[in-house]
Amino acid sequence: MKDLIGKAILDYQTNNAPEDIITETSLTEADSMSVAYLFRDYSEMPKIEQKALQMAKGKILDVGCGAGSHSLYLQQKGLDVTAIDISEHAVEACKLRGLQNVSVQDVMTLSEATQYDTILLLMNGTGLAGKLNRIAAFLQKLKALLTPGGQILIDSSDIIYMFDEDEDGGKWIPSNVDYYGELIFNVRYKGEQEDPFDWVYIDYNTLQNAAHANGLQCELLIEGEHYDYLARLTHLKL
Q: Sign of torsion, CA 67 232 179 145?
């Protein structure tokens, strides 16, 4: 990976002529996003993110922290937060912003010696699994990092609305995809093209079924304004 999103984040933090990030998926045409959006404060965050931050407690792990806005808010509140991201540039920007406990780390290789009371996966946290057939391993890893009374706060969207309807009112989904929420993402920044990567949006019912299959209780906390939602996963009580 060329870490183009991380480069954009670091450019913005260091005033190095940041430009918009251009994203395109296997389902959508090219769209631009101002990198400033990743630096928003609490008042500018969607209600789903605000709700997750309100519920965060204990020892907190922020997975895929990006520019660090969520972790910085929690740190400023005096909470014990550890932030990780696979992007070296993003982590460098987080440190420059004053985030104290942040490192370059893939959650799938994170040591299970330390467990957390709250694990945050925001801005479509299910996307980090990449594909639906990887969600079981993903949830098992998160479960192993969770204290017995801990919680996983994760958001996603049901993107079925993006597909055309047929005459019977059903959705027309291409036969060459295993699950309609699976996309291939392409990112461009300052004329460079990122290597394509897998990303998955998971509807709530599918996430709930996957959670139960992997020993986790799943609760719908809040729905957003555009088919998005925040879920809370906890250890399944036997």
A: positive
Q: Does 15 reside within a domain?
A: no
Domain membership flag for residue 21: no
Q: Which amino acid is at 169?
A: G
For residue 69, the number of C-alpha atoms closer than 13 Å in the C-beta half-sphere is 21
| Of 231, 228, 230, the residue nearest 159 (C-alpha) | 228
Nearest to 98 by CA among 121, 79, 73, 117: 73
Distance CA 130, CA 184 (A): 9
Q: Are 102 and 91 in contact (CB under 8 A)?
A: yes
Query: In whole numbers, what is the pLDDT of the chain averaged over residues?
Result: 94
Whether residue 191 lies inside any domain: the answer is no
Q: pLDDT digits over 8-32, tens only?
A: 999 999 999 999 999 999 888 999 9
Number of domains in the chain: 1
Q: Could you give the CA distance from residue 223 to residue 155 in angstroms, rounded to a whole number?
A: 9
- CB within 8 A of 89, min separation 6: which ones? 3, 6, 7, 9, 10
Could you report the per-residue pLDDT of 51-77, keeping only the tens digit for each?
Answer: 999 999 999 999 999 999 999 999 999
The HSE-up count of residue 179 (CA atoms within 13 Å, CB side) is 18
The pLDDT-based confidence of 115 (bands split at 50, 70, 90) is very high
